[in-house]
Specification:
The chain has 117 residues and is an all-alpha fold. Helix content is 56%, strand content 0%. It has one domain. The chain has 3 helices and no strands. The radius of gyration is 16 Å and the shape is elongated. It comes from Litoribacter ruber. Keywords: Membrane, Transmembrane, Transmembrane helix.
């Protein structure tokens, strides 16, 4: 399996869905904990959950870039996913269900031929 932080190559819809669900769930938990920390003025906790939130957003963007590569689109389209919810959620759903390019493309070989998960 390629490095999760490497925005090169392609990933399948299934792998993207798994990464999306895991990271989106972590994002929601971090937002809730940040809100709790803000209410009780626990600034260290707020900062820690903020760092985790930004990190998972980066992981989501890298996964989205690799998924965009699978449907032969450039990384620049991933910037639309930075629009706040629910608009970005529509983009993530599109990436989950859009079928990838069959066979190799300019971003790499077909990930379905080598995918284990």
């Amino acid at each position: 399996m390629k490095n999760v932080l490497e925005p090169t190559g392609r990933i399948t819809r299934r792998k993207f869905l798994v990464l999306f669900v895991v990271f989106y769930f972590i994002n929601l938990l971090c937002l809730l904990k940040m809100y709790e920390s803000l209410e009780i003025q626990a600034w260290v906790s707020f900062a820690i959950f903020g760092i985790i939130l930004v990190t998972t957003i980066v992981f989501l963007m890298v996964a989205a870039i690799r998924r965009l590569h699978d449907i032969e689109l450039d990384w620049k389209y991933s910037l639309y996913l930075l629009i706040p919810p629910p608009i970005n959620f529509i983009g993530f759903i599109y990436l989950t269900f859009k079928e990838g390019t069959v066979g190799p493309n300019k971003y790499g070989p077909d990930p379905r031929n080598t995918d284990v998960v």
